[in-house]
Amino acid sequence: MTNSCFFLAADAKYFPYACLAARRILDVSRKTTPGFIMHLGANEDDVGIAYRLLKDRVRIVDVTNFMADSGYRFRPGSVATFIRLFADRFSEFAIYDRIAHIDCDVLFNRDIADLVDQPIHAHLLAAHDDYMYFRPGYRDEMSMQPGAPYFNAGIIVFNMRPVREEDLLKQARKLAVDGQMNDQNALNVAFEGKWQTMHPNWNLMSNGARDYRFSQAYARHFAGGKPWGSQIGVELEALKIWRDLAEDTPWNKPFRQRLPFERGITKRFLRRFDAVGGLFGNDVHRRRARYDAAKMHRIYARQAEEGAMAVQFPEVLGGFG
Predict the structure, then answer these.
(1) What are the tens digits of pLDDT across the range 28-52?
(2) What is the CA radius of gyration of the chain?
(3) Domains in the chain: ranges and CATH
(4) pTM of the full predicted structure?
(5) DSSP label at 134?
């Protein structure tokens, strides 16, 4: 039996979205998995709404002073994105041996206990980010080994015992500062060769792919258009869930449906012609033309079921490298 928790991190602007994402986790979970929202200076009114929505099932923790006193000065942008790099430093997390970090733009369809309590023998459980494999130059830019795989950090599970023993998050923090990296790149370098493939349904991203949809996701990650933003690629059933979550709050306005149909359907339709675009485009287009999302989904699902480590040159395995 593992001792697990999950957390979301947000600045004042994203705090409402973190609360709604956390509420959805509670709504679809049968088991009780402790949850936290680590925030930077959310206003009192929003915090009050959060307590009403989440009651005592998710702890609201203001980490403004902690981050200011951490001694780290990260690249310009939202400091909140770097909160995940301190999972080994927060006293609230000291008792947990599995810690899941969830981005604010994620909507769960399945009990989060099924994610955090599954067998993990690596330092990290994470999902491949195939779009990076269309641009393999990242390996040189980030001083990674030839063929090094790359994960998306929107939904990750830290196996905290080896992470603490090897000080991997400290390494990630140093990389983020010294190399002026974003948090995801820093994590990928620090955890290179140390991560296990997550089933792709746990981080199904809204990147315009037409193969997999919201109803098939264990957790849907709106890494492209946001439900509160452009809404491109956000399925209408998912948008309705966001809208229902925010219904009795002052946060509901951004989730109003802008058009009577799903935004992004044209983009998904055009993806049918990637093969044609690959004949005339650059290297990225040529790689995407050979990309078979269904094939890669099956490969990653099999790796996850086997508890396999992320393989070298995943694009070669998929036949689009």
Answers:
(1) 999 999 999 999 999 999 999 999 9
(2) 19
(3) 4-202 (3.90.550.10)
(4) 0.95
(5) T
